[in-house]
Each structure stands twice: as structure tokens, then as C-alpha cells.
Amino acid sequence: MFYHPRGLPHPSDREFTKKCVDFALPVLQASQGRAFFLFTSYRNLNQAAEILKTRLDYPLLVQGSRPKSVLLEQFKQAGNAVLLGTSSFWEGVDVRGNTLSCVIIYKLPISSPHDPVMKARLHAMEKQGKNPFFEYQIPRAVIALRQGIGRLIRDINDRGILLLCDPRLLKRSYGQIFLDSVPPMKRTRDIEDVKKFFRNQEL
């Protein structure tokens, strides 16, 4: 199930991280942990970790605190942990079964145009008369998003909730491109549907 709640602020809002955590907590309670919370930067990841460590009822694992392989093993062993990860956890990580039943994506993984290498690439495309945002940044972000979502479904029998915290999905013209890239799944904007989903899984 794809859950995209109402009332999310724009990612540029200074309260965005706090609001994301506010929306994520009821989902994490419903899923009883068992989640990856994926970020596009360590800065945002660490902000969320600071908030979650006093509000979460489940083991909290944070990328950067231990080697990746150790974090993954601890996640699998705990059975109810919440793992906060960035770049390397968006792909190439395989956790099958109920141990991972929720993936929360902080925001659309659109690369920052302020990175020096990215800035140079985008400028070169502009000089060629291209639209770097739609011809380069958006396609790359769509691929990254699909990889992130792919952490949730690793097996034909896997079930879970995808929470995407970025309101640009519905408020920007390019949002539909991302929506079209999401694998077929039931969609909701109601937390009660999420709670019901997990209650039915328990049955």
C-alpha cells in the first residue's frame, strides 16, 4: 500500500523534518518498527535520528554509527527495528519477509543543483539547448525512487507500506512522472487504512 498523507509541508520548510517524523510515527507504530527510513542527505537523517531517539518505541539503527553490514545484521536480528539510511541503502540491500514491512522515503531524490559537479553538468546541458531538470535530474530521480521502493518488495510474497513524505508528488507538474513510476499498489491518504492494512496482516 502506498500512503501519501495530507498536510505535508514543502521540503524547504524549516519544520519539514519534524513534520515527516510526526507523520511517520503512527505508521511505525502500526508496522511495529520493521522499517527503512530513507533520506537524501546525512544532515536530514541525523536531524530525524535526534527526534526519533526520544519518541520511538523500537530499536533505532542509524547509518554512520556502525558499518553497513553490521547495521543490516542488527536489523534482521532485532525483527522490529527502524533503520535510518541514505544513498547506499536505497539500492543493493535485500531484506525479505516481514522483517522489513515499511519503507519511508523522506523526499523525492532529486539531486541538488548546487553540487559543483552537478552544477557543471547542468550548465553544459543548458549550453546545448537542453532542459537539464526534465532531461537529467528527473529521470535520475525516478530511477533512484524505484530503487528505494524496491527495498520493500524483494519477494513475490512480500507485503508492506510505502510512505512518501514529499508533497511535490501532487503539487508540481512533474509529480505525475514519479507517480507513474511507482509499482502497482493500493493508494491511500488515510492513516486508518495503514493501520487496517497491518491488522489484516496479523490475521
Shape: globular
Please give the share of residues in helix.
40-55%
Distance between the termini: 17 Å
Sheet bearing the most strands, described?
7 strands, parallel
Number of domains: 1
Rg, Å, rounded: 17 Å
Quote the CATH topology: Rossmann fold
Beta-strand content estimate: 5-15%
CATH-scheme architecture: 3-Layer(aba) Sandwich
So what's the CATH class?
Alpha Beta
Low-pLDDT segments: none
Per DSSP E runs of 2 or more residues, the count of β-strands stands at: 7
| Strand order, sheet with most strands | 3-4-2-5-6-1-7
The CATH homologous superfamily is termed: P-loop containing nucleotide triphosphate hydrolases
Instruction: Give the overall pLDDT as a whole number.
Output: 91
Q: Indicate the structural class.
A: alpha/beta
How are helices and strands ordered from N to C? EHEHEHEEHHEHHEH
State the helix count. 8
Architecture overview:
With 203 residues, this protein is α/β, with parallel strands linked by helices. It has a single domain, classed as Rossmann fold (3-Layer(aba) Sandwich). 45% of the residues lie in helices and 11% in strands. The chain contains 8 helices and 7 strands. A 7-stranded parallel sheet has the order 3-4-2-5-6-1-7, with helices on both faces. Helix 1 crosses helix 2 and helix 1 runs parallel beside helix 8. The protein is globular and about 55 Å long. The protein starts with a strand and ends with a helix. The mean pLDDT is 91.
